[in-house]
Amino acid sequence: MAHTRISNKMPPHIEPARAPIAFGRRAIPKLNEELASEDLVTRQCALASLCDLVHDPERAYETIETGCLENLKRLLRDKDSVVRRKTTEVLYELSVHNVGRDAFLQNDVILSLAELLDEPVDICRVNMHKTLEMLSEFTPGAAGIVDAGLVPQLVLKLPSELVEIQEIILDTLHFCLRVNVSQALASGAISILKEKLLHNSVAIRSKAAQALMGICVPLEGKNEVCKQNIIPILVRLLKDRHPEVAAKAAGSLMIATITTQGKYAALKAMAIPPLLQLVSSPVTEVSLNAIKAITTLAEAPEGRQELLNHVAVLESKQDHSSEIIRRAAGTAVRVITWKP
Amino acid sequence: MTSVLPPQKESTSGTYTFSSRPRALPNRSKYRDPVAELQEEPTQYGNIMYDRRVIRGNTYAQHILPVSAQPDPIEIQRQQEVRRRAAAKKRAKDQLRPRTPEPVEGRKHIDVQTELYLEELSDRIVETDVECQTDAFLDKPPTPLFVPAKTGRDAVTQIEEGELFDFDIEVKPVLEVFIGKTIEQALLEVMEEEELANLRGQQRAFEELRNAELAEVQRLEEQERRHREEKERRMREQREVLRLEKETAEKIAARVFAKHYLADLIPSIYSNLRDNGYFYDPVERDIETNFLNWLVKDVENTLDDHVLGRKVLDMLIREVVEKRLDVFQQMEQQHNASA
């Protein structure tokens, strides 16, 4: 009698750690069913295959359309750590695509991810934080994270986590701060960031300075920053060897010195000489932020007096290749030479 | 065969009275003779289902015996009706029952019984019983292997190495597919990472711009605010100064006017006072007050004395006149009396 099977032996299972992927359209639904199975090994294999498939945007869209998110959410609470790790990887890959992010927001995946904040296994936490960071990079995602009240929890986690996770958290915070600063301020973010500014790792320093820049944007942030004496630390960071740290420090200064209080604090901390040095740096961001910081300092009469001696440096920048630097330099010169 | 007492006859000695006497079932042969059945006398039996004495229906409702022992005329009527209907039904049924059709003309139906024409078969064939039984099975020896006679010719073949296929040539497409897939996968991954890196680069550039612009915006805002405040302050000062000036001018004007007004005041006061007699000559005053008082009092006293004197004189005169009148009246009376 004719069978659909060609030979008596089943085809060889090439990779035992991965579930076999069905052909074409059937691949994702079959994996979805396997995700819901009781057997641990099936689940693990299915997750491994899904992880590979989801890199492709079309597959990612299919995954979301067939409603795998419910199963994935459930698997986040699974007892086995391999399952959790693979699930977080899948979610990370999904969050890279825009449809994934939208689907996350619609299906409340953020809350399920937040349950993993206290996860004992490190790699799961890393993936989870990476997912959150990817999610926060676009505005509705950041708004979602803020709405879920995750900002205070993230801030509290900051001192106690591993270094790489701290970097990711700082990035997430940086994006969330664009949406809403008050929650972070309320949980004492500034004091925590102050310690991080003096950390050994370059990445952490620069990211902490970046986060500070975000916090300084509203008025309360600026006042807090001046009150906690962060400006001298920032001035010290201006002399840092690594350009990204200096750039971000200059950025924070440029925003924090907008208030009169900030201006005088910066002038007291002798911010002008390092800033002038940074203006001639080759990295665009550094010189741009430095020029802007100088502009704000020039608003104060003492600053203006001191900077009148250094107008030449800024004028030389006016022929720079990048348009923004030209504009910034022009503004700076104008402000310095303004007479009331 | 049946032993049935006529049901109407009731045994006087028995404790029971039967309307349907129990009877033993007759011992009938299995295959009944249809003729014999007809000759049985119909037994009358009563069905308790239709017995009036048996109460049917709900037992919790009272079964009220009829008031009189005699049956109700209505009851009698009803029973007669029922009986009539039963009879009618029976008649109808009888008529409907199929009967043998009426005999054809010239013929007549007669009941015939073939019993008389039965004859006994005496001619029987002799029969004998014979049995037969096979022996028990004996063990069968195994069948010998059937080897068909050999036909045809023997032939031998052997596959040497390299005769089926050439490995190197055949493996090429398989290898190509393998390598192609691997490289494709690798390419995809690299492309993905590159794309991500590009996106990040763009993001960074955008962020820088955004931060710079944000700082600019805030700075300008701050500047605006300060300038505005400064302007406000100066304007307020200016207004203060103006106000003070105005006040001073008003004060001066008021003062001048007041002075002018008051300049005329004193002479007019003096004239008023003088008019009202507030400035007096003390001697005159003194004379007026003291001297004249005394003078007037004295004059008054003197006048009073004069008046008193006159009064006294008047009284004198009156008395005298009265006395004279009396005297004259007396005289007149005397005169009249004597005349």
Automatic annotation (TrEMBL), chain A:
- A single Pfam family it belongs to is Arm
Give the ARM repeat ranges: 229-271
Q: Which SMART domains match?
A: ARM
Tell me the Gene3D superfamilies matching this sequence.
Leucine-rich Repeat Variant
Q: What is this protein called?
A: Radial spoke head 14 homolog
Originating organism: Erpetoichthys calabaricus (Rope fish)
Automatic annotation (TrEMBL), chain B:
One of this protein's Pfam families, by short name?
A: Radial_spoke_3
Coarse class of the protein's main subcellular location: cytoplasm
Q: Does the keyword Phosphoprotein apply?
A: yes
Q: Which residues form a coiled coil?
A: 203-248
Give the Basic and acidic residues compositional bias ranges: 93-104
Q: Which UniProt keywords apply?
A: Cell projection, Cilium, Coiled coil, Cytoplasm, Cytoskeleton, Flagellum, Phosphoprotein
An annotated GO cellular component: cilium
Matching InterPro entries, A to Z?
Answer: Radial_spoke_3
**Where is it located?**
Cytoplasm, Cytoskeleton, Flagellum axoneme
Annotated stretches, region: Disordered: 1-33, 85-104
Where is composition skewed (Polar residues) in this entry? 1-20
**Which family is it part of?**
Belongs to the flagellar radial spoke RSP3 family.
**Protein name according to UniProt:** Radial spoke head 3
Gene name, Swiss-Prot/TrEMBL: RSPH3
